[in-house]
Amino acid sequence: MSPHATTDITRGLDALRRRWWVPVAAAIVGGALALATAGGEDSATFESVVATPLVQVNATGPSTVPPVESMVSQLQSEATAKSLGDAVEGAALVATMAVDKTSVSVRATAPTIDAARESTQAFAAELSELYQSFVAELADRRLASVDAGIAALDGSTGAGQPNGPENASTLAELRVERESLTEIAGKTAPTPEVRQLSSSSNRGATAALLALAFGLLAAGVVAMSGLSTRRLRYRDDIDGVTGAGTLISEISRAHGNWGVGQVIDRLSARGPVTLIPVGARPADDLRESIVGEATSEVELGEPFARSAGSAALRGPVVLVVRLGQDKRSDLDLAHRAFSVADGPFAGVIAVTRDATKVR
Amino acid sequence: MILADVLMVGTVAFLLAYVLLCSAVFRVTRSPAMVIVLALGAYWSLVGALSILPSKRVAGGTTFTYMEDRLYPILVDGDYALTLLSYAGFLTIAALTVLLLAKPAGRDPEALGTWQRLSGRFAHPVLVAILSVFTALKVLIVGILVAGSGGASLYTATRTVQGSLGGELRIYQYLNVTTSYSLAAGLALWLGFVAGRQRYRPTARRFLWLAYAALFLEVMAENALLGNRAVPLVIMGAVGTGWLRWRYLPSTRVERRPQAARFLLLALLGLLALGAIGNSRGGDLSSPGAVVQALETSVTQPRAIVEQVAGSSEKIASHMSLYGVIRSQDLVRDPFAANSYQAYATLVDAPADQVFTVHYVAAWWMRLGPLGVPVAGLSFGLVLAVLQRLALAARGLVRSAFALPAAVLPAAGLPVIVLRSGPESLRAVVVELVLLPGLVCLAACWAGSRSPAPPDTDPLDATLEPPHTGHQEHYV
């Protein structure tokens, strides 16, 4: 943590106030980047659930379990993709069996909504066909048995025949079953229903996410840069270089230039006061603010950086620091130059950025 | 550039920004607990996206994780973008709320001194005695639970309070929380202040070291047996936080280097222990012998542990829950839902045998819709700020007793309790992280304030002597 009383949060917030446009610009760039890159048509995913229940072709016999795994692997084969052709071009397929294998979820993702819908329909129809073919094959096999039974019983149902009534009843049942089997075998696969799984729009949320991320990142970087104490921004920064109590006055819009004249007058008891700017020479109206109130002899010297401290001095030296502009290292050098061996250093006057408006 | 790439850029950029936010929170609060909470908050919210998004770049985004196969598939679409945005918004609001409402540590430069004084008058023997009694009771109940678990794995049998052993399980959970969390608070204070330990005679000191080690190992063994990673994580987080706050941060730079090396080594071992527990639970591990054997096998295969930790579904389970809520077309908002876990399970039609997690933001979304995101962020940040203020200094007997658990337990406890559940978990924060361990600590503080100082030490020397030089400069 900074050893100065001005907290890091204050420094960070001040930095954000000074460069508020950086995070704003970063947020705009982030949002625009998202819109530009994710702005095309969204890829989409559709789903269709194909029923694959147990098959019961014989009313009295056991149910038959359809080979769902084999159907799914056939569906996922390259051969199927080739046979379906353009309908599934560029689509990715995932087929998931239900735990009890009585249905299969067919999901296809494609670069466009229409392509995804079409490919899902094609895959689901193919699976439905495979299932229906299996059912039809079972029905055909059973149909052959039923036809053989009918042929065997056809001439043995007369009243004079042995077991005639029973045979007639069995024959009638077989004919009903035959009708049902014919219907099952001739059934066509149902048209699968598809539904869109993925939501269609992503532009707003994506743009907002990138705007937030970029804006916050830039705000963080700006705030962190504000923690740097390379430039003198606060009174504490001056105290940190020249020692506590060396800041003798501050000229700002809020405080005016009250006290500067009196301080200079008091110091002039030790000889004519020289004000030495640490950085650049202050503007003319500011010079007036600094020295105008003093009644005693006062001189505004050359900036320290130019004079290199070589001016002939007859009295105390007061360093003038422009907060927010002058560097800590310059103040440090100037302070050392005028403090060595009981040098003439008498204190620091801080001038804020808005001080040019002081009258 | 496909949508998964754009979202990846956004997520990574946000996480970088979040690191800066956490750094700002640390600068203000000087509290490692706050940073750990916020870091774990990101782990359970957004880090899951870092493994989900790359997997969606191949095969048209149709590669699914185990959790997706069991619950619902994640598709990189508008709903997923909204999920990521909501988590980012939640984390930002939570961190900014802490920044605004937490008390800057610099305003109380004497805070460390108050903790130091507490360590000098905290009666560790009393704490150890209370915990030993509770532990004996707890072990008895664990025996009953193990005997009554039937054919189910010990992990599955002790997950939910139900069946004929529901009563015993509930008592066990409260005893486990009380003993484990109080142990963590006491241990953090014991390890954090050398002067606090030095006021005991060498024999008493050795006894306390042994007692703390035995209690710690018992808690670890018991939770490993039942497959519970959360309690060991909370204990390790609390002890680590206390040590960082009271020992590491006040140390000089020279002292810090070996301390950091030791800390990192212990943290790695802790992580491996958690991974070993994760590898040795569930399935057909229905007897203590089977669990112990699985643990032995697990410990001898560090690579499997690392894979378990790296590939854990933990970060994905909570991350995906908000997506499941947002994409659901059957969502009926119920602001007063009592049980978020149950409401979420019903909403996504979760299989009964699947253990999963519902994120705090998802729970709020089920109640308030999109408005739930700022409400979740504000409430989470507010809880953090209140705990930080309570834990800033240890002044007064009663306040110190509750400030101690509040200073260390939230580090991992708050994310474990709150981020994997709904707003109903806020009650558990007060009860489990502050009230129950606070009452146990109160007994130790009270006994410590009444007992005379050990005859061979001057109480003033023992309590006021700073353990290290250069404390204050770090706390100003």
UniProtKB/TrEMBL annotation, chain B:
Q: Transmembrane stretches, by residue range?
A: 6-26, 33-53, 80-102, 122-151, 171-195, 207-225, 231-248, 260-278, 364-385, 397-419, 425-447
Source superkingdom: Bacteria
Q: List keywords of the entry alphabetically.
A: Membrane, Transmembrane, Transmembrane helix
User: Is Zinc among the key words of this record?
Assistant: no
Q: Where is this region: Disordered?
A: 451-476
- Positions the record marks as coiled coil are none
* Protein name, entry field: Oligosaccharide repeat unit polymerase
Organism for this UniProt entry: Nocardioides currus
